[in-house]
Amino acid sequence: MPERTSEGLEDSRTPDARLAEALGFTVESALIRSVRREPRMWAEALFPIILPAVRMAVAAALRDAVQTLNQVLEQGLSLKSWRWRVESWRTGKRYAEVVLLRTLVYRVEQVLLIDRKTGLLLSSAAAPSAVTQDTELLSAMLTAIQDFVHVSFDVENSADIRELHVSDFSLWIEQGPRATIAAAVRGNAPVEFRETLRAAIDLAHQEFEVELRHFDGDSRPFERSRPILEGCLQSRYQSPGKTSSRKAVVCMASLAVLAMLWFAFRIYQARRWDRALTALQAVPGILVTKGGRQGGGYVIDGFRDPLAESPQNVLARRGIDVQNVALRFRPFLSLDPKLTLERARISLQPPEGASLALDQDVLSIRGTAPHEWILRTKNAAAQLRMWGIREIRTTDLRDRDLEALRTRIEGKASSSPKTPAKLGGNKPRLPGWWPHRRHSGSEARLT
Hints:
Order of helices and strands: EEHHHHEEHEEEHHHEHEEHEHEEHHEEH
Radius of gyration: 56 Å
CATH architecture of the largest domain: 2-Layer Sandwich
Strand content: 15-25%
Largest sheet: 6 strands, antiparallel
Number of strands: 15
Structural class: alpha+beta
Helix content: 40-55%
Number of domains: 4
CATH superfamily of the largest domain: Dynein light chain 2a, cytoplasmic
């Protein structure tokens, strides 16, 4: 028989429950004092229990992380995932939420345990990621809907609502003798879920029979029913079928080949440009100060002697499209021996039979040349000095006019009769340009 308290109220608790309540404070105080006094002893005692639990928790976390990574990799390149990303951007929802909604078969977001007589909420449980409303308000609205149906449509009180549907959301209701369990389901739950709700309401009546019979508005005793309600928080998602990885492999291989071809082409272009730039720098009379890519083309800055080879021809021979190259050369005079010799040849214009050679800063003239050209060459010494020619050497140069005159005089002398010359007679007069010494052994120097 239930005992009565000092206030005359019947105590429905069992003797074991009363004993546990009476010893609870004493046992807790004793444990606290013991842990504070001997922490090492408690650590050694709990170590064999805590360490396996930690290992199991870490292993479970790693398995979940690997599974999540596999799902991300599987959905990363699929067309379906890109459609979900567009939907997330369009609706403003998170990508994970869109994936959840699109792969969801059903999910129980909230479970309520309601007193059938008063309509008050006894306990509730909700899914971790579900958006829940005021549970008290929900239970009251559910009771009001049931009363509305009974009154408006003349339905017997024993007939209860079992399901409510709104779009993809449904409310599953399972009645018991003293309590009602209601589950908010998103999606299409299977028929087997009804058996789960029936088992939950039966277990609630079995575990809390006394509390339900003597319910007076205090829902604290029903907090222990949360594990029963959490057992109803079920969910099911679409299991991805076996997808062939051939398309992904072909796509990745194609992208890799294209990337390799692009890099190879860029490397080939860079090497061809380097070879062309090196060849341009080796041209006499061209000095490159800057050369490289700028924007969509190339730019070359430097100096160029007017007698140097055209840079466009040098680049064209190396396979460079000169249309994509901006050449910015400023003029200057190069002291390169080849250009200096060419500049002297253009300035002096040696006649046929005369040749020029440059050895460091000495210009050597060989062969035969007219007397007038020889004089003009000597007068051009100052101009040649500006080009780096310090000396003009004509040791091997013969005066063509002098040789011809000598030959003619010697021919006349040999054909006339030999007569003795008179003492004190007149000497033969030579032309005004006759030199007083032979040019074959002369040497003109620039000082």
